[in-house]
Amino acid sequence: MSESTSFHMTPDEFRTFGYAVIDWIADYQQRVESLPVMSQVQPGDIRAMLPAHPPAHGEAFADILADIDRVILPGVTHWQSPNFFAYFPANASGPAILGDLLSSGLGVQGMLWLTSPACTEVETHMLDWLVEMLALPEKFMSTSTGGGVIQDSASSATLTALLAARERATNFTVNRSGGTGKLVAYATSQTHSSLEKAMMIAGLGRQNLRLIDVDATFAMRPDALADQIARDRADGLTPIFVCATVGTTSSNAIDPLPAIGEICQRERLWLHVDAAMAGTAALCPEFRWIHAGLEHADSYCFNPHKWMFTNFDCDAFFVADRKALIDTLSILPEYLRNEATKTGAVIDYRDWQIPLGRRFRALKLWFVIRHYGVEGLQFHVRQHVQMAQQFAEWVRASDDFELAAPVPLNLVCFRHKGGDAINQQIMDRINRSGDLFFTHTRLDGKLTLRMSIGQTHTQMEHVQRAWTRIQEETRKLVQGQAARIQN
Ligand SMILES: *Cc1c(COP(=O)(O)O)cnc(C)c1O
C-alpha cells in the first residue's frame, strides 16, 4: 500500500515518536519528585480541557504528546513520586516499563499455548521462579500438582479461587445447574472488599460471607472461626472457603495461617491466602515468617504490581491443585480446538482465569527479575522495611502520637492522641500542600493515619521529611487552637 492510501504510523515515524515518548518518561522520572503528589484538580477540570467532539482529521503526534503535559499531568496523582505514601505502592520501574512496552510491541494474545508459546512458557517459568524466590510451598510449582498464573489483580485471584472452591465442594454441580444458596465463606472485617464482591459475582450471596472476629492485632481469631463453622454446619449450611490475609490493606495484620490452616484441613475447606502487598517481603529470608502455615493453603496470591517494582497489572496467583481450577473454568469451543491442547502437553492459561484473552505480562516480570536480580529486590524491600521501622520509632518516641497497630513490615498505622478531628486536619492540610500524600483508615473506631512505605524511589530523606511535615502541621494546628481559645 502506498503512503497516500494509509493513515497508519510508519515504522520510521514510530521510531521518531517512540524516542520522544521514552525521553518524556525519563524526564518525568527525573522531575516527578517536584510535582504535587496528590492531583490538585476539581471534578470535571480535565474533561473540560478535552474537545467536545472527536477529531475528524488525524493530528500531529507532537501535538498529541504536548497534551500529556497540558491536559493529563495536572490530573495525575503521582504514584511514582518518592513522596507517595498513600494506600499501597503501585510500583513502576525502568525494566518493567520496557518489558511492558515490548509486550505491546509484540501485541500477542496469549489465550492458548498455540497462540504464542513464548507467552505461556515464560509465564509458567516466571511463576516457578517466584515460588523459589519467596520459598513458597513446592506444591505451587508447575512441576508439581499446582502452578501459577498471572492475573490482572488480587481481586480476580480471589474470585478465581472462590469459584474453584465452590466447584470442588459441590462436585462441579453449581457450574452445571446453579447454586443452592447454602454455601458459606469466611473472612474478617479486615479482609479486602474484593471477597465480598467475589461472593456476589460467584452467585454465593454476600449474606453467606461470615466475618470472623479479630484479635487486638486485627488478625483472625481461629477459635471464632471454628465456632462459626460449627454453627453453620448445625444450621444445615455448607462451609467451603476461608480467605486469610497476610498483611491486610488497612493495617498489615497477619492472620494466623497455622491455626486457620489446621481448621481448613479438618473441615475440608478451601484456604485462599491473600498476600497482595506483604507477600513481596518473603523475598528476604528474615521476613518469611509471614508465610508460616502456607503449606495448608489451596491457593495463594501476591501482587508484584504493588511492591515488587512491576508495573500494574501483575498479580501472581498459585494453586496447589491445578486440576480443580481448570475443571472449574475450562470451556472448549470448536474454534479453539487444536492438537497441542488435545495432547495435554501444554498449558492453556485461558482455563486459569475469567477472561479468554490475555497480554504477555510475564515479559515485564522477567525483565524486573533479571534487571534487579534476587539480591537487588531484597535490598530495596529491606530498605523499605527499615524506613517504616524508623518511622514507627519516631512515633513511639513522640509525646503527641501513638501507634495504632503493630508494624510488622512497611506500613505504619498511627494517630495523634487528640482525636479524629485533628488527625483529619493534619492529613487534609498536608495532602493539599502536595508535599506528600498519605491516607487513612479506621481502627477500633478511631481515625488512623497510614504511612505506606514502598514506592520504588522512596529514600530515608523522604520519610524523614514526611515526619517533619506531620509534626510541623500539628504544631500549627495546636497553636491555632490555643490562640482561638485565648481570644
Ligand atoms: C491491594 C489489595 C488487594 C486488591 O488488589 P488488586 O490487585 O487491586 O485487586 C487485595 N487484598 C489485599 C490484602 C490488598 O492489599
Explain what the structure shows:
This protein is an alpha/beta fold. The protein has three domains: 11-34 and 39-76, dopa decarboxylase, N-terminal domain (Up-down Bundle), CATH 1.20.1340.10; 108-359, Type I PLP-dependent aspartate aminotransferase-like (Major domain) (Aspartate Aminotransferase, domain 2, 3-Layer(aba) Sandwich); 376-486, Aspartate Aminotransferase, domain 1 (Alpha-Beta Complex), CATH 3.90.1150.10. The chain has helices spanning 11-31, 45-48, 61-72, 94-106, 117-133, 154-169, 173-177, 194-201, 222-234, 257-267, 304-307, 322-329, 339-343, 362-397, 420-433, 460-486; strands at 147-151, 183-188, 209-212, 238-245, 270-274, 299-302, 315-319, 401-403, 411-416, 439-443, 446-452. It has a seven-stranded mixed beta sheet with strand order 1-7-6-5-4-2-3, sandwiched between helices. A four-stranded antiparallel beta sheet has the order 8-9-11-10. Helix 8 links the parallel strand 2 and strand 3 (209-212). Helix 5 (117-133) runs parallel beside helix 14 (362-397), helix 6 crosses helix 12 (322-329) and helix 15 (420-433) packs across helix 16 (460-486). The mean pLDDT is 96.
